[in-house]
């Protein structure tokens, strides 16, 4: 019999792995109109358990994710909100007692001042439905069998070359027809902690042992072995709907309330609970959901807690933190999510870091594929996200250690006091909220003119702030006007154009931008695909005449904004002050992912010309 | 050939007419699980034009409408928001100039301080999709042929009797199979200004001539003939996205910005424009969309305005206001919407009054059909809604007249000044917003103990206010916790239950309500279907122990609320003060439609017992 020809196909981007990082990537690229495919080796999405915490910054990111429905909208509808954290310590009368409550989120600029908790399957569904609405499906079960990057230097330099060859096996396809050779321009490996893509690239995981349970459970200090149980509780514990850190003399416990009436418990285990006395190794067979609950019950005393109905999901894990040595091979194959960083689940970072990895990558791939940006732009992915992962791991180590320690007492002089714990909890606010992410200077982060908008930190996400639309006095959250639609946002803070000197500066800037040689004008008819331009004026809604703003700053009537209160006088006003912009105005460039790229004085457009020349393709 | 037997069927409620009033009715009843059908003579929904304004109160009502998605959510997503009104007057230089801008809505307690504008077809779609998600469809084209109410007095007294016989003709069904006899317990006629149901009942329309154009256009003062045009404008007029009242020496004009870039113009017409000089009658043939725009252009001078592309819809009408003599026949057949009141479109009242008619009726029908309430409850529909319609008509006359008058000048000493107009616009705020609706005392509105919650006006809708949920410190808009789910809401303002005297009062109330004879206890297992109970405590989120509240007030952990700020300190707190409730507490009963039914002192439950005895069925 003749051997059938192997199926061959071309694609711009192949995403391997349909967890949160991969799904985020695929929906963003699909939305941008990029030719993308996503495959996964699992036959279906996660049914229960796994990650479940969405940070304030991630909610902001999903809020500006564009789909037929808001991604955050559904998250907020289906998920639980954690607003409050409660702390319990050993009580002098035995058992535990509450020593305090404090806001769960300590990030004053957070637009959503809470975390959302929802099981990973529900979060994946949001993305899957979004993909479906665009005619995309995850192909599964599909296993990658080989990956090869071209060694042709010219091909590697050409952003449009299909320089990566991946062989895929379609597990459910008939034999002989189950193998496909895919020629991709770019590949994203979002295939989890045991990433096959990472192994093909030969990238090492640096750091301490990782803790993907139960396969890799072996040894390590028993203090760091934890159990996780999802259930609907039957309890008289009055903080069951708050995040709780319980330090008892019978071990630590963390409570994470979830969607509906579900609660997750993280339960610290002891040698006795999990270790085989003869081998000294952690033995998963020693554990069960019931056993985990027995341990939890001791920590909760004098409160009673048991499951209403069945335990929904459980696992055990060992805390460990590792980061991949590299995140990118030749700017052709990238790894993202758990494939490049693993950490403890309790700080609720995993899924957030994963989705934000690909959120960082989507627009860069899109701009390169459209021929607008130079391929070197893709180098900033590793630069920005690996640094973040390292910071995250450092934070996580400290946080997890604090959590695993015993309460300080006469017998445990090295233990942690409640005050120390609460203080650390507060200090880590910027990190646990995700709000503190700060990208270092690079071709796309230029902080030289920070003074022009002194409080809008270049490299951080644009601050949330209500502005008023000039044409109809409607208040808008500025972040909502800057969706993740792969466009750069050009915010022209005009000052008061009623003042002749200011009007002159604004008109000159307009004249420059209308020139065909300017960074805006060079895109001709396409300029509104690459940039979304807004004017932000220092005028009152009662007497602004929005048609006075030069036309290049208002391609549509909706593009002129005001620093003013709304008609109720209750919301809005203060964007100039909040951003640290004076009445002389400024230009702010927000990257497509919502981070401030550069700020320039209103009368120095050359600064912007150099910025965009740094990564836009030569025309 | 034998004559085929006519199809006969039973239904609890038959709704005739699938405009906004009928659709609101059908979706509310369907959601409540009532056996309902809805028929309409038109083959499809409205495609363009017609009504388009949704008032702040109607948004609140849709917000608490329960469906798989929020009704208001989609309205807010698809519709335009009008926040600002602008006024133009004749300019000394000729043409018009702006004399001022003022908030479009003047209703300080409005939760949504704006009107939403969206064409009627889109609004109908929201309801149609909601019905569809529950497995319901509008049956169309279906024409009612006869309606007969039983004259059997026993049947009329029995709320479960099918006392109404309606013959329907299914226009598209094959001959011989197109006629159906429906035996209904109740019928709602929501079949428009020319209501067939109203005519069957013989109810007269009282008041001046009505203005459903173009059929009924005949005579009347020409000042009151107006044209309407929907289009996407090409204009340099700087208030094109605000509601504008333009008084020019060439006639009046009103601008209503709509969804997307659409704008509606209301254009005052003159004798010359519309009247046949020989007959003296209004002649629709004299008019066209182009002619209407020509008239508008004169009013807009010196600004230019024309249509971008085609005119989307247009009509002409004569202002007229009428109210039906009765809204109900034997509490078996009701009329709602345009079937019982017509008025000028410019104040944007029509669709709002219509939807609020059936919003008032849904829960009453449901309670009677479930056997919970006495059939006499249905008498309150006409009582409450006819009074409202009369007030509306009185307002509308004044408003429309003001709008049709010429600007005051030397030649027009009887004209209206801009100051008078703006002042009237502000004064009417409570009416145009829909917020001012105030139902008179009746079996379901008992204002005797108003002093216990002095600022929460009995008979008005419950005020919006942020409260904090005790179990998890999550802020909620109180209105959102009181959905239109046909349940009475019992808000127990407990005061500070840390105070022993207060705790004693609360415990006694709890003890009473747990008794089988109480208005709550008599429903046994069903009590949480009839009532939704909340405790609102004067406690701080940092130290409240929600499990201290008696169990009858918290059937679920989510039912205990606090008068406190949220974790950011920015929202919440003040519900006791806003409602005028002292630290001694009170009980507030909110009707299923969101209106305050009664307020009682915390220690006088007898007041509530009499209230519910007044309309609950004897058990």
UniProtKB/TrEMBL annotation, chains A, B:
Pfam families: FAD_binding_3, Phe_hydrox_dim. Residues 10-395 form the FAD-binding domain. Residues 437-618 form the Phenol hydroxylase-like C-terminal dimerisation domain. Keywords: FAD, Flavoprotein, Oxidoreductase. GO terms for molecular function: FAD binding; oxidoreductase activity, acting on paired donors, with incorporation or reduction of molecular oxygen, NAD(P)H as one donor, and incorporation of one atom of oxygen. InterPro entries: FAD-bd, FAD/NAD-bd_sf, Phe_hydrox_C_dim_dom, PHOX_C_sf, RIFMO-like, Thioredoxin-like_sf. Belongs to the PheA/TfdB FAD monooxygenase family. This is Phenol 2-monooxygenase. It comes from Gloeophyllum trabeum (strain ATCC 11539 / FP-39264 / Madison 617).
């Amino acid at each position: 019999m003749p051997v059938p020809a192997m199926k061959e196909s071309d694609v711009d981007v192949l995403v391997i792995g349909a967890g949160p990082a991969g799904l985020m990537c695929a929906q963003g690229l699909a939305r941008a109109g990029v030719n993308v495919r996503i495959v996964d080796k699992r036959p279906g999405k996660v049914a229960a358990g796994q990650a479940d915490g969405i940070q304030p910054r991630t909610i902001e990111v999903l809020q500006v994710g564009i789909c037929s429905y808001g991604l955050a909208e559904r998250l907020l509808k289906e998920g639980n909100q954690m607003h409050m954290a409660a702390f319990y310590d050993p009580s002098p009368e035995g058992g535990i007692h509450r020593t305090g409550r404090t806001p769960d989120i300590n990030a004053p600029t957070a637009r959503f001042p809470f975390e959302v908790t929802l099981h990973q399957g529900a979060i994946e569904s949001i993305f899957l439905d979004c993909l479906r609405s665009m005619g995309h499906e995850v192909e599964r079960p599909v296993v990658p069998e080989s990956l090869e990057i071209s060694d042709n230097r010219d091909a590697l330099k050409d952003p449009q070359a299909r320089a990566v060859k991946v062989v895929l096996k379609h597990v459910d396809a008939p034999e002989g027809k189950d193998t496909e050779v895919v020629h991709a321009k770019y590949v994203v490996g979002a295939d989890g902690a045991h990433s096959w893509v990472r192994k093909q690239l030969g990238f090492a995981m640096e750091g301490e042992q990782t803790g993907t349970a139960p396969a890799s459970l072996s040894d390590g200090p028993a203090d760091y072995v934890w159990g996780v149980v999802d259930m609907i509780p039957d309890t008289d514990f009055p903080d069951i709907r708050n995040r709780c850190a319980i330090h008892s003399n019978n071990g630590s416990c963390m409570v994470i309330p979830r969607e509906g009436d579900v609660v997750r418990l993280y339960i610290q285990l002891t040698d006795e609970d999990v270790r085989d006395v003869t081998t000294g190794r952690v033995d998963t067979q020693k554990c069960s959901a019931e056993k985990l609950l027995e341990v939890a019950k001791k920590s909760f005393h004098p409160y009673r807690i048991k499951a209403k109905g069945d335990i929904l999901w459980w696992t055990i894990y060992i805390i460990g933190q590792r980061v991949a040595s590299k995140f990118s091979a030749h700017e052709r194959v990238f790894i993202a999510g758990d494939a490049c960083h693993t950490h403890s689940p309790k700080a609720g970072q995993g899924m957030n870091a994963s989705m934000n990895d690909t959120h960082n990558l989507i627009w860069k791939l899109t701009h390169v594929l459209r021929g607008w940006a130079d391929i070197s732009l893709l180098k900033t992915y590793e630069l920005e996200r690996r640094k973040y992962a390292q910071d995250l791991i450092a934070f996580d180590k400290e946080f997890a250690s604090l959590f695993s320690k015993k309460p300080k007492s006469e017998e445990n002089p090295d233990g942690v006091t409640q005050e120390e714990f609460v203080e650390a909890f507060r200090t880590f606010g910027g990190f646990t909220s995700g709000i503190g992410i700060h990208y270092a200077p690079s071709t796309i982060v230029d902080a030289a003119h920070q003074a022009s908008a002194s409080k809008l930190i270049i490299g951080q996400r644009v601050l949330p702030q209500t502005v008023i639309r000039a044409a109809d006095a409607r208040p808008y959250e500025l972040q909502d006007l800057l969706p993740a639609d792969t466009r750069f946002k050009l915010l022209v803070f005009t000052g008061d154009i009623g003042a002749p000197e200011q009007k002159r500066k604004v008109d000159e800037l307009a004249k420059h931008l209308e020139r065909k040689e300017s960074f805006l004008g060079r895109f001709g008819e396409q300029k509104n695909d690459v940039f979304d331009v807004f004017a932000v004026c220092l005028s009152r809604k009662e007497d602004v005449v929005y048609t006075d703003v030069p036309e290049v700053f208002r391609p549509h009537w909706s593009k002129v904004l005001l620093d003013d209160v709304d008609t109720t006088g209750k919301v809005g006003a203060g964007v100039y002050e909040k951003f640290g912009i004076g009445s002389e105005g400024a230009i702010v460039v927000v990257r497509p992912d919502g981070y401030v790229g550069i700020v320039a004085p209103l009368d120095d457009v050359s600064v912007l010309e150099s910025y965009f020349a740094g990564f836009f393709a030569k025309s």
